[in-house]
Amino acid sequence: MLTAKSFNLSTKCMTPIPTQTTTPLIKSSKLKEGQSKGFIVGGTNLFIVRHQGKVVAYLNSCPHRKIPLQCLPNQFLDFDKQFIRCSNHAALFTIEHGLCISGPCNHQSLTRVKVEEYDDQIYCTIPPA
User: Fold this and answer.
1) Cβ contacts of residue 69 below 8 Å, gap of 6+?
2) Which are the contacts of 3, defined by CB distance < 8 A and separation ≥ 6?
3) What is the Cα–Cα distance from 102 to 92, expressed in whole angstroms?
4) What dihedral angle (degrees, nearest 10) is formed by the CA atoms of 82, 105, 97, 53?
5) Are the C-beta atoms of residues 82 and 64 closer than 8 Å to each other?
6) Of the CATH numbers 2.102.10.10, 3.40.190.150, 1.10.3720.10, 3.90.1150.10, which one belongs to the domain with range 17-126?
7) Taking 90 as the threshold, does the pLDDT of residue 62 lie above it?
8) In angstroms, what CA-CA distances link 101 with 22, 27, 35, 108?
9) Where are the beta strands (DSSP E) in the chain?
10) Cα 26 to chain center, whole Å?
11) Lesser CB count within 10 Å: N end or C end of the chain?
12) pLDDT of 89-115, one tens digit each?
């Protein structure tokens, strides 16, 4: 195995890379089609949505004012459950890409969070700060 010592490199000059942590959020069966749910994981405010059978996740922060999107718990979608809606500015974002299509942050996007679903569980991976 090659190491820093193999190349006469000092490990003191290397920047450690923080590891990403994968965190279980909720059982897959608890998030039905058209539902959204918010979480705080290690100080990171995020939400997930099940749309067209897939789960997507974003930071819970409007790109316009950097404030949470929802006023009521777990209410991230518009009435028809076709768009993510900022309840503060009525901005609409596509669920698939988080792109704002209407509102003061038009053409800006929500920040995506890596999410995986397996073994009847939904997991997210928060990048290190």
Assistant:
1) 47, 60, 61, 62, 76, 84, 85, 86, 87, 88
2) none
3) 5
4) -30
5) no
6) 2.102.10.10
7) yes
8) 31, 31, 21, 8
9) 21-27, 36-41, 44-51, 54-59, 83-85, 92-94, 100-102, 114-118, 121-126
10) 14
11) N
12) 899 999 999 999 999 989 999 999 999
Domain ranges of the chain: 17-126
46 is written with which tokens?
């995020």
Confirm if 105 and 63 have CB atoms less than 8 A apart.
yes
Query: pTM score, two decimals?
Result: 0.84
